[in-house]
Automatic annotation (TrEMBL):
GO CC terms of this entry: early endosome membrane
Domain of life of the source: Eukaryota
Matching SMART domains: DUF3480
PANTHER family: ZINC FINGER FYVE DOMAIN-CONTAINING PROTEIN
Taxonomy of the source species: Eukaryota, Metazoa, Ecdysozoa, Arthropoda, Hexapoda
Protein name: Smad anchor for receptor activation-like C-terminal domain-containing protein
InterPro entries attached to this UniProt entry: SARA-like_C
Pfam families: SARA_C
Domain Smad anchor for receptor activation-like C-terminal: 1-234
One of the GO BP terms on file: endosomal transport
Length: 258
């Protein structure tokens, strides 16, 4: 997702013309417009800086920013984040650059125009997490891959027990979904159902799932296979949720085997 507040953005360009598949960073911007604010895809903070007299060091890495700080600065940064306070880090020998972490109003200008594969529901402003280095499940000539999870609802429990682990829950749902659909990848592809989603509702009093592609529910053939793998997983998660309701929508893509 590109920031609407930025008029340019860092991108990582990978070369396919040589064996090393090297990459370089560029800043793309609006044609014939001055570059005022440059967006980045991520920020990484590294607390291992050990250069005497240097409070911080910033550098561009791929399409993001890395900020290296001493261990004591990292402790202070974590405290500021925990307390929801702004925090500034001077970078360079003379602090000629400043990294500012600033708390602002909740930004919901992301996933604009994205619609659910299950039923066409708008997902504007719904937070999502891209899945990197996930497991590919092979069905012979095709694979199925979990690529993203949308967090439609996630609330902390009022109890003293551990909160629902969204990451672990998503992984278990993804695994069950892939195992269920692997034998049916050719049929799904032939029916042009190559991008699909599973939306699960996890709560002790309300548990279930829906699955769809192209904004419509999946046919019964695929739902039966999903039932065999998913029902037990979502019910077990609901029992462990301790009144921490969650609604997650996982996105899967079917691709040709490379």
């Amino acid at each position: 997702n590109l920031s609407l507040a930025a008029d340019s953005h860092l991108v990582c360009m990978q070369s396919t013309e040589d064996e090393n598949t090297s990459y370089h960073t560029q800043a793309i911007n609006i044609h014939n417009k001055p570059r005022r604010v440059t967006g980045a895809s991520f920020v990484v903070f590294n607390g291992a800086l050990k250069v005497p007299g240097l409070a911080g060091k910033s550098s561009i890495v791929e399409d993001g920013l890395m900020v290296q700080v001493p261990s004591e600065t990292m402790v202070a940064l974590r405290t500021s984040l925990r307390d929801m306070r702004d925090h500034s880090i001077g970078c360079g020998p003379n602090a000629e650059e400043t990294v500012v972490l600033q708390w602002t109003v909740d930004d919901t200008n992301f996933n604009i125009g994205v619609k659910s594969c299950v039923d066409g529901r708008p997902l504007d402003g719904v937070p999502s997490i891209r899945v990197h280095n996930g497991t590919d499940y092979s069905g012979g000539t095709r694979i199925i891959r979990w690529t993203e999870v949308f967090i439609l609802q996630c609330e902390d429990s009022d109890h003293t027990s551990e909160p629902l682990d969204i990451s672990r829950l998503s992984e278990s749902i993804a695994r069950a979904t892939c195992l269920a659909l692997v034998p049916l990848l050719d049929l799904l592809s032939a029916a042009s159902l190559t991008t699909l989603a599973v939306r699960t509702t996890i709560h002790p009093d309300n548990v279930g799932y829906e699955a769809g592609s192209n904004g419509e529910k999946l046919p019964p053939l695929y739902m039966k296979s999903l039932d065999d793998e998913l029902v037990a997983v979502v019910h077990q998660a609901a029992l462990a949720s301790q009144d921490s309701p969650a609604v997650l929508e996982l996105i899967f893509r079917i691709m040709e085997q490379g």
